């Protein structure tokens, strides 16, 4: 289960980073990924 969460988190992270256009957007994307990981664990 933990490997699945890690794989999904990595995929979301890659997609989020590639989709954001600003440093602020990257920070918000990282924060949302971190929040999702906290909720999943």
Describe the structure in your own words.
The chain has 41 residues and is mostly helical. The protein has one domain (2-40). Helix content is 88%, strand content 0%. Helix 1 runs antiparallel to helix 2. The longest helix is centred in the first third of the chain and has 18 residues, at 2-19. The mean pLDDT is 78.
Tell me about the biggest sheet?
A: none
Q: Please estimate the helix content.
A: over 70%
SS strand fraction: under 5%
Number of strands: 0
| Count of DSSP-assigned helices | 2
Topology order in helix (H) and strand (E) letters: HH
- Unreliable residue runs: none
* Rg calc: 10 Å
Average predicted confidence as pLDDT: 78
Overall geometry = flat
- How many independent structural domains? 1
Give the termini separation.
Answer: 10 Å
Secondary structure layout:
Blueprint: H1 2-19, H2 23-40
Summarize the structure.
This protein has about 40 residues and is an all-alpha fold. Helices cover about 90% and strands about 0% of the residues. The protein is flat, with a radius of gyration of 10 Å.
